Amino acid sequence: MRKKILAGLLVSAMALAGLTACGADPGDLTGSDSGQTQTENNGGNSGSGSIDGEAAMENAKSAALADAGLTEDQTIGIGVKQDFDDGISLIEVDIYTPDMDYSYSVKADDGTIVERESSVPSKMENLNVSTKITPAQAAEKALAQVSGATEDNLRMEYDFDDGMSKFEVEIIYDGMDYEMEINADNGDIIQSSQEPL
């Protein structure tokens, strides 16, 4: 009789140890899913300290605009993307205006600007090249591909590559970045692509 009682106690102790190791509540010997529910609830709460992506992106955009001394209606486009660098969550903000382009890296957790750059965009009127197709003609051809865009939305550079004379055109318009290469000898569009800012 003693052996049966000891064997029964041993089995009960092993079962209790097994339930505890699996994360189950030792007081619940019914085999219910309370351990699983507890794990799911903890998993759901673990993100409570995480950064709200949309709010962080909006904060970064506001910080960049304020630093540049601009309002959104003074821009022709703003690109906002999440990035990671050396384990730090960053928001990359690119601001485009007719006369200046700005690029910011902003810490996602607190909105601190960690890097800023600005540059004057290359414009058609600044190109002094002798080509069969003028910069103005290339600009007109490119703008015809993006309905509603104007010269304020346009950036243009001249390049001679692999024996070909060409204009490299970028148009920032309506949340999109359009890029084209136009042959400076005949006006053909060699290459064209577009992507969201």
Offer a few descriptive terms:
197 residues; 4-stranded antiparallel beta sheet; disordered N terminus; alpha+beta
Mean pLDDT: 81
Q: What is the approximate shape? A: elongated
Poorly predicted runs are 1-50
In total, the number of strands is 8
Helix content: 25-40%
| Rg over alpha carbons | 31 Å
| Beta-strand content estimate | 25-35%
Strand order of the largest sheet: 1-2-3-4
Question: How would you describe the oligomerization state of the chains in this entry?
Answer: single chain
Order of helices and strands: HHHEEEEHEEEE
Q: Helix count?
A: 4
Terminus-to-terminus distance: 80 Å
SSE class? alpha+beta
Main beta-sheet strand count, sense and barrel state: 4 strands, antiparallel
Your description of this structure?
The chain has 197 residues and is α+β, with helices and mostly antiparallel strands. The chain has helices at residues 2-21, 34-46, 53-68, 135-143, and strands spanning 77-85, 88-96, 101-107, 113-119, 154-161, 164-173, 176-183, 189-196. It has a 4-stranded antiparallel β-sheet with strand order 1-2-3-4, covered by helices on one side. A 4-stranded antiparallel β-sheet has the order 5-6-7-8, with helices on one face. Strand 1 (77-85) and strand 2 form a beta hairpin. It is elongated, with a radius of gyration of 31 Å.
